[in-house]
């Protein structure tokens, strides 16, 4: 595969209108290709890391835009290749025209994530850092952003590399013992292996624990809003969307019918389970019983169970109360602006979705269900993503087998198999021996121009 010899280009700023837009080129021909359409200083002769003023010309020498061109020469660039950034005057038309002008025999359009992929393939960043670049781009909350920055900065890679360095010494010793049993230092190696295994496990444990409870920060909390017809589920949803913004008085007919799937509440992203279902249950609850609700409850990490405080509970609602009792749930008694009729013995919060009261309490409860321990945790803790977490766990399992093997006095070559396995899966976190499919899949999830 020699695609790395290609020079690639893409618009690296988000689509739409902006003060400036950037067309980025990376590869051996980046500078000459940009220079071919540039009227100003000769870009092939300028020093690295300079910004050059001039005009960008179409094939017919017509001026497309007044531009500033940054020239960064390999290897000290984002991709480790020659990198050129053409800063144009915003506007989708101009930017697109600049891009299509540089594309040609020597330059092709970049695939999504290809700039970052090159940074990875050229060894400037490892896989965990590349993943974090994507997480950073997609961050929706401050906590997500902070967690990603730490990994972009290399904190996870450093931990992994340090642990592996300790482990490789043990592997080397064990191999000597296996090859030359007459050296008879095997006892020492076994002791050292047990020590290293325990210390590695301890370090992994804290990242695993933290990452498990923190996965909701990355993936969002799957949330189901459940309740009988007319209790105010749609109104609650609207209240959540409005969030901390000024409370709007309900204008009849303004309840949304098409709803986005995500709501950001403080540091959490709520991922709504089946928003269409919120409305469907209104009929289904009568026709099909609470089957649909059960399905939603099953899928959810969090159930918001809504009651109408201005009336008594129905038997169906009693059933919902029962069906959710083992779930993380918040029981919401709505319509607190009306005269209270419902008498509920379980913990609940009173809200009025109509005028927005109770929002803060609801937010606090949601946060305390999912963030307790996360936000205050030491800054040294790392939040691994699902792929990394899986590998951390299998590393941990292999290490458990190592300890069992050592305790049971198993032959060293057998114990070493598990130890090697742990060393390997730890390496996969930073992309050591990462299969092509994994790398391709990962970078294809990036957006264009990154
Ligand atoms: P859903 O069927 O559970 O989605 O309920 P809706 O959100 O569509 O609300 C049903 C009715 O209750 C509508 O007429 C709402 O205006 C009304 N409603 C919702 N929340 C409140 C509230 O907090 N107070 C009062 N008084 N009425 C509400
Ligand atoms: Zn509704």
From TrEMBL:
Q: What is the superkingdom listed in this entry's lineage?
A: Bacteria
* Chain sites annotated for binding GTP: 230-235, 249-255, 274-277
Q: Where does K(+) bind?
A: 230, 249, 251, 254
Bound cofactor: record note: Binds 1 potassium ion per subunit.
Q: What is its EC number?
A: 3.6.-.-
Gene Ontology CC terms: cytosol
Residues at which Mg(2+) binds: 234, 255
* Top EC category: hydrolase
Keyword annotations from UniProtKB, A to Z: Cytoplasm, GTP-binding, Hydrolase, Magnesium, Metal-binding, Nucleotide-binding, Potassium, tRNA processing
What's any GO biological process attached to this entry? Answer: tRNA methylation
- Molecular function GO terms recorded: GTP binding; GTPase activity; identical protein binding; metal ion binding
Its function, per the record, reads: Exhibits a very high intrinsic GTPase hydrolysis rate. Involved in the addition of a carboxymethylaminomethyl (cmnm) group at the wobble position (U34) of certain tRNAs, forming tRNA-cmnm(5)s(2)U34.
Q: Which HAMAP family match?
A: GTPase_MnmE
Name the family the entry cites.
Belongs to the TRAFAC class TrmE-Era-EngA-EngB-Septin-like GTPase superfamily. TrmE GTPase family.
The name this protein goes by in its record? tRNA modification GTPase MnmE
Please name the source species.
Xylocopilactobacillus apicola
């Amino acid at each position: 595969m020699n695609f790395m010899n290609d020079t690639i280009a893409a618009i690296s700023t988000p689509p739409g209108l902006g003060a400036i837009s950037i067309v980025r080129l990376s590869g051996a021909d980046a500078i000459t290709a940009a220079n071919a359409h540039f009227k100003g200083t000769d870009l092939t002769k300028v020093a690295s890391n300079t910004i050059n003023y001039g005009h960008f010309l179409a094939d017919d020498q017509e001026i497309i835009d007044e531009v500033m061109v940054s020239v960064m020469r390999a290897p000290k660039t984002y991709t480790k290749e020659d990198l050129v950034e053409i800063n144009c005057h915003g506007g989708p038309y101009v930017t697109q025209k600049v891009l299509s002008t540089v594309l040609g025999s020597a330059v092709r359009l970049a695939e999504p994530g290809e700039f970052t992929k090159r940074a990875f393939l050229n060894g400037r960043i490892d896989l965990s850092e590349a993943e974090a670049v994507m997480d950073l781009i997609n961050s929706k909350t401050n906590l997500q952003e902070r967690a990603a920055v730490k990994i972009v900065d290399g904190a996870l890679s450093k931990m992994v590399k340090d642990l592996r360095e300790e482990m490789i010494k043990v592997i080397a010793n064990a191999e000597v013992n296996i090859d030359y049993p007459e050296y008879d230092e095997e006892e020492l190696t076994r002791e050292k292996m047990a020590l290293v295994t325990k210390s590695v496990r301890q370090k992994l444990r804290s990242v695993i624990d933290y990452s498990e409870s923190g996965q909701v920060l990355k993936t969002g909390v799957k949330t189901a809003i459940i309740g009988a017809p007319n209790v105010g589920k749609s109104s609650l949803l609207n209240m959540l969307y409005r969030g901390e913004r000024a409370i709007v008085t309900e204008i009849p007919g303004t309840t949304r019918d098409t709803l986005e799937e995500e709501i950001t509440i403080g540091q959490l992203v709520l991922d709504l389970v089946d928003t269409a279902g919120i409305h469907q249950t209104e009929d289904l609850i009568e026709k099909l019983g609470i089957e649909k609700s059960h399905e939603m409850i099953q899928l959810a990490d969090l159930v918001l169970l809504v009651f109408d405080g201005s009336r008594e509970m129905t038997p169906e609602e009693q059933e919902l109360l029962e069906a959710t009792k083992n779930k993380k749930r918040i029981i919401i008694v709505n319509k607190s602006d009306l005269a209270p009729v419902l008498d509920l013995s379980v913990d609940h919060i009173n809200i009025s979705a109509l005028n927005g009261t109770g929002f803060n309490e609801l937010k606090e409860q949601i946060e305390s269900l999912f963030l307790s321990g996360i936000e205050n945790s030491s800054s040294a803790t790392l939040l691994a993503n699902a792929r990394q977490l899986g590998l951390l766990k299998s590393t941990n399992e292999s290490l458990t087998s190592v300890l069992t093997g050592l305790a049971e006095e198993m032959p060293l070559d057998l114990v070493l198999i598990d130890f090697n396995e742990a060393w390997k899966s730890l390496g996969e976190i930073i992309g050591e021996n990462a299969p092509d499919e994994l790398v391709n899949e990962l970078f294809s999830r990036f957006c264009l121009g990154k």
